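Before the break, one more example. Copy the sequence into your notebook; we will annotate it together after we see the structure.
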Amino acid sequence: MDRKEFIPLSTDLLQMITVNQAWHYSIVPKNQDNGLIEFFIDEQKNLSWIKDELEILFGKEVRLEKTPTEIINKTLGKYYLKSESKPGQNKLSVNVKSDDFIVNLIEEANSINSSDIHIESYEEVCRVRMRIDGKLVERYILKKQEYPSIINKIKIKANLDIAEKRLPQDGRIYFTSNNTKFDIRVSVLPGLYGEKAVLRLLSKDATQIDINELGFNKDQLTHYLEGIRKPNGIILISGPTGSGKTTTLYATLKILNREESNILTIEDPIEYTLDGINQVQLKESIGLTFAHALRTFLRQDPDIIMLGEIRDNETAQMAIRAALTGHLVLSTIHTNSAWGTISRLIDMEVPPFLLATTINLTVAQRLVRLLCPSCKKEVTFNKKLYPPNFKAHVEVKRHFTAIGCDKCFYTGYRGRKAVYEVIPIKTELIEKIKSAQLDISSFLKGGKIMRLSDSAFEVFTQGKTSIEEVYPILMNSH
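Here is what the structure looks like once it is written out:
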């Protein structure tokens, strides 16, 4: 976007005023120099009384520059984010000098559905970033002299050692505010210019997750529900960090959570809470690993076991043993495709004949951002926008692009959905696994399975996302 559309703001200018001040007076910071503060202001506003109020508010001389209403509104919409989930509680600009800075920061992150807060130090400056819809957005600049006290306050809240600055530390904050309760996982890492803290907001209520809303198409959902309703076996979900695997698992547990079933989970960390499920937090420092917990679980008379992740040979072997002895095991594994989970488990020394008899289905998933319905723009499509190796099975003449408006904080996107590849392990594939014939490209291309790239392409052709968002998935379509 160019200057005609909005006024670009640096983070140090951005935090001169709060969200409420920006919208109330329709002002955007321009410059601050000793005893003078300059603002851009909506040309339709009464300058005289606003100037007087601002000079009292800041205790400095204020200079106002008239600016077209449209530019002011677009700038405010882009930089001064207002919460839609909690109307009237727009605490989205916090005072860095405030004693409640950390509390306000967490409240802000929660109100705009941010998943992580990054607080980091560099040679001359420190900053705070928040991850919104999978992308990091810079929110605050901190002074170097303020930074150590902020890190110490985080450590105190997370019950960490404030004297230890040379080693990484992990902790947890149990946060309560405005009738909301959630957990925060804290990781502190020593860096070249000071410690970096990352706060991950956790323990969302899983009762709101609906498997029908995640992104499965009709056939995929049918295969998936068939697989999870078997009394025993393994369900594996693969994908990179942050691809929504845990959300899919909890949507599954919500379906399976019945009074007559004993469900146990071992997780790192516990990201959702669900009544009726027995959840265990991994603690490797005291020997409570996935494999150790799973061994204990088998003595707890379980019906369904959820493992946060299969990371090593021992955990893989224990998961297979649990499935063989009549339990349903749900887990995640880091591979690039649904079928890649099979070769990964064989690499972990799981015998192919045991895999063939225990795996019910294997799933791969990714998250794609959805275009903002308020501002997406339809334009003519150019085939050159496809990755070089991608061959579209339908012709696309028109597509939608991201524009940006005040509804989506001028990113062009609002929300995300998962795209899936679901492979039910049935007769033909069972025989291939038993004989370790792991090349099933002809089977996948035969149209029997909707691949990950097919699912992503379908979301694109429906006009729900942009070609830029699905491009990385389409690159792996061959």
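The radius of gyration is 26 Å. The first strand starts at residue 27 and ends at 33. Try to locate both features in your own notes.
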